[in-house]
Amino acid sequence: MSAVDRRAFLTAMAASIAVPAQAKGGDPIVATMAGRLRGTREGGLCVFRGVRYGEDTSRRRFQAPEPVRPWSGARDATAFTPSCPQASAVGAQGEDCLGLNIWTPGIDAAKRPVLLYIHGGAYSNGSVVDPLNYGDRLAAAGDVVVVTVNHRLNALGYLYLARLDPRFADSGNVGQLDLILALQWVRDNIAAFGGDPGKVLVFGQSGGGAKIATMMGMPAAEGLFHRAITMSGQQVTASGPINAGRRTEAFLAKLGVRTNDMSPLLTMPVERLIEALAAEDPILGGGLYMGPVLDMKWLTRHPFWPDANPQSNAIPMMLGNTHDETRAFIDARGPKLAGLSWDNLAARMQPELRIDLLPEWIVAQYRAHFPDWSPERIFYAATTAGRSWPGQVIEAEARAKAKAPTWVYQVDFASPTQPWKGAPHMMDIALAFGTLDAPGSLTGTGQGARAASKAMMDRFIGFARSGDAGWPQYRIDTRSTMIFDAVSRVENDPRGWERELFARAPYIQPGS
Hints:
three-stranded mixed sheet; eleven-stranded mixed sheet; 31% helix; 14 strands; Rossmann fold; globular; 15% strand
């Protein structure tokens, strides 16, 4: 029996011996390839939290993950695994963080579409234990299986040591390899949870979207997912190995570890590794950037440079951004905008731009085109269009040129609870999951928010099911874009003037 045939056989066996929740009347129990899992019944769903897809990574720092080992008996899957150690406050943290969570309408043979979510927080922070990305409402709304995944981040997932020590040949990309292992687990086991392993959609916000864009260029991920949605997260280019090596040197210097002896990294407290991320980034300044590396082993070309990677052009892809991305990063009532005026607008904008155009010229262009706009409105429009939006435009244009199935959306729904933030970065998380009342949501629970959320959830679910977003594909001649709002609609090339303005100079992906 071939490996492929054996995997198909085991998947079918796992599905056939699942204990139906409705038959037992109590906690649902599912047989996976490694052993049985006991979940909970919640609001008509079967929920499995903290499902381990890989072994404890503390014993394999900076190395590729190992699949979870088999166990006997029924293992409880009722609590989240720890989140990857990080500087952010995300609850329990630990290196034994390779866990996923499943919300399913039934452990049966229904073969529902699977929506697997990858969290944001760039490549250094974040977790799916945040109630904003609980999968219960999305699973119930669309009769789909929702999976959320934690994996290694920051130095634990992306520190590049491969050129210094052969033991760490996979380092620089092990965070990505964790996600690939999670997708392999889904392929091999999700049928037992009522899901279809041949209809897996990956979606992720911010850094989660960037991780997806990167996986679309990783041969090891080929065939593991069948649709993709990136939400305010792109990865045009990865970190080059020379720049990644310079960051490693800064990190090791902060720790006092010699480049010819990596052994202390394996035994020192993980807290010290996290503290060392405060070393100054030799390329960007500020704290160290960590992200995927063009290591010529796992990642052999940039994800979307010089074009869209042909490996994934057949995969239907949806790309989205919010209208006011930078209002999430730059407080309208904070020091950066205190005393903002026409006299200092260009100087205040300059540090926030990622496209090297003359700031005074940018201001003049906006003032001529939008004479009634205030300095604050121009500040946020220009920093969004010149910082957070270009990667999405580049990726969508590249796929359109390749005639790849591509759809684009823009979130215009503005926060009614914090109106000075408009439609900021992260606005689309609660809308997509239906978690409008979760802590941290900016949407409120009014009629407009419910309408925008329903429109977004319906489109995501439909896309997972059919591979078609339900509005015209993004093409160079039309640039059709779904605008998610209290009343959603399709527009051709919204913000086209801004797109053309910032296309006059190249975009350099931060960190690369």
